[in-house]
Structure formats: structure tokens, C-alpha cells
Amino acid sequence: MDKNGDMKITKEEFTGDNELFKRLDVNGDGVIARDEVLGGGKEEKKQGKEIKPGGIAPTILDVKYGSRTNQTLDLYQAKSDKPAPLVVFFHSGGFYNGDKNEVNPQGFLQSGISVAAVNYTLISEKPLPQALHDAARAIQFLRHNAGKYGIDKIRICAYGYSAGGCISVWLALHDDMVNPKSSDPVEWESSRILAAAGWDAQTALDPDTLRKWAGEAMLNPRTGLPGRFGADSLAELEGPQFSNAVRESSAVQHLDAKDSPLFLSYEHASRPVTGETPLSIVIHNPLFGVKFKEATGKAGLECHVMIQGVLQGEKAGSKYSNGEQFLKDKMAPGQ
């Protein structure tokens, strides 16, 4: 992408969409510099508060939504005299690392939409599906505290990058985890969301679907898929011990016509996966979007897929040009 070799990437050189560019352009100067890429898009912390592009700090920092170490969230409250819609951000990192401070809430706040940025259990503490269940609990917690935080508990959406996108898609598809018989009042709330957007999101994690979509190379040991479930090998992962966890964690396994609409965006061009395909392209392959869109079409579910800035299978002048616009539209009054 760095066409002139100056170690900087301008908007004109960048091949991804606007949201991914804004995420990587940490200081908001319109250029992605080498130190921003190496820094992983994380913003600096000053005086105990996380400083975001544009000088935005959380309204409330490190709210505990559960008892586990990483079950914390930051809340950025939009200026509003009535309950505001909420978009919930889940960070990237392959479920191995990452942090909620990746979020850039500015665009949503300017539109009167509050933002929650969520940390979740990493697989070093407990493997999948724990991180996904954490995400559902975060949604329930925010609904339970909607009055306290000025949230419109009906208009809640989710988004994220890579693993965070995977989580967001999973939330859009998974059946409601509400439990009215629980002794924990947080679980009395719905875990459902209005819509989800994912950038470079994995829409399937089960080996059978990955083989069907892209072949055996999609299960290359380099991806570390077994370890995300606590298995030592692919053979072990495909055994009966892990079958329930794998199915539970794979978003496409929960797909039906009643699910929430989605917008998926991918940076890389679509191409076959081989043993020589770079790891970043294997785990962020546009086939996760293309094949998923085929499945949603059969189910009758709204799903938009963008690859390198081009919507797939849609006419020019589509209603949505990016994921942020899509989410804002879904949270608009009357939708």
C-alpha cells in the first residue's frame, strides 16, 4: 500500500475502508505512520485515563460487568437529554491479547450514540467460548444498568475488528441468553443486539465449515485454532470432547432468519487459500464474508459484505457505504 516508499500510508494509498483507516491512524493526522502500525493502534494513557483520538477519555473507566479479571468495560456517554442508543466495541487480538483502548468512539459520539468498549476473558485464562459468553454478559449488564448510564436498552448494536468482529457477528446470530430463573438479575436481560458490523471478522470457527469454505489450508497449524479451545491438535479439537464448545463458538452455526442484520468489511482481496498464503490473510480472509453472505442469503437474513471498499453483489449507490454508517442507520429512531 505504501506506493512511494516513504513509510507512511495516505488515504489515497490505503486499500481498506474508512473505519479501518481511522482505527490505524491513531493520532488522527490523515496518515498511517510506521510507529502507529507497530504500536498496534493502541493509544497512550495519561494520568490514569485512556486518551483517544481527538482527546476523548471515557466518561466511566473500568466498570466491572462480572467477577472475572478481564470483565471490564469503559463507557463513553453521548451528550443527550434522553436515553441514547449504544454501540458496543470488542477489541481484536485473536482472543490471545488486545485491549478495549483500541476503540475510537468519536464518530458515534458526534452522532449522539454512546459507546461501550469491552474487555473479555482471553484464552490464557479460559478458552472459547468464554470470551463470547463474556460479550453476551456485557450486553446484559449494560441493559440492566440502562437507567444508570442513560442507555436506550432497545437500540444496542456491536462492532469490532478481527476477533472483536467475530464476537459481534456471534452476538447477532446467537439465540438470546436471557435467563429469567437466574439468581443474578443481570441474566434477566436480553443478550440480543439490533445489528452488528465486523472488520476482517471470522464468521466460522468450526473445522467442517472452514474446510467447506476454503479447503484444508484454512486449518493450517499456524492459525492456532485448536489452542483457542484448549486443544493440543486439530485431531483433538475434532474429537467429542470439544464438539459442543466448537459449535457454540462458531457464529454461522447459529444462523437463522430471525437473526440481526450485519455489515462485514475485509481489507484483503479475495483469493484461494493455500499453504503459502500469509497468515494474516488466512485468518482475515474475505471468504469469511463471501461464503457467509451466501449462507445468509439462503436464510433470508440481511448481510452486506465489502471487500477492499467494494460492496459484493449490490448495485452501485447502495444505501450503505461503510459499517459505521450501517450501524448508525440501524440505531436511528423508528428503525
What is this entry, summarized?
Helices cover 29% and strands 18% of the residues.
Structural class: alpha/beta
Please state how the strands of the largest beta sheet are arranged side by side.
Answer: 5-6-8-7-9-10-11-12-13
Taking all Cα atoms into account, the compactness measure Rg is 19 Å
Which geometry do the CA atoms define? globular
For the largest beta-sheet, the strand count, sense and barrel status come to: 9 strands, mixed
Gap between N and C termini, in Å?
38 Å
Helix fraction, binned, reads 25-40%
Q: How is this structure best described in words?
A:
There is one protein chain. This protein has 335 residues and is an alpha/beta fold. It folds into two domains: 1-41, no CATH class; 52-330, 3-Layer(aba) Sandwich (Rossmann fold). The chain has helices at 18-24, 34-38, 106-110, 130-144, 146-149, 163-173, 207-214, 225-228, 234-237, 243-249, 279-283, 287-299, 323-330, and strands at 8-10, 31-33, 45-46, 49-50, 60-64, 72-76, 84-90, 114-118, 151-161, 196-199, 262-266, 303-307, 310-311. Helix 4 crosses helix 6 (163-173). The N and C termini lie far apart (38 Å).
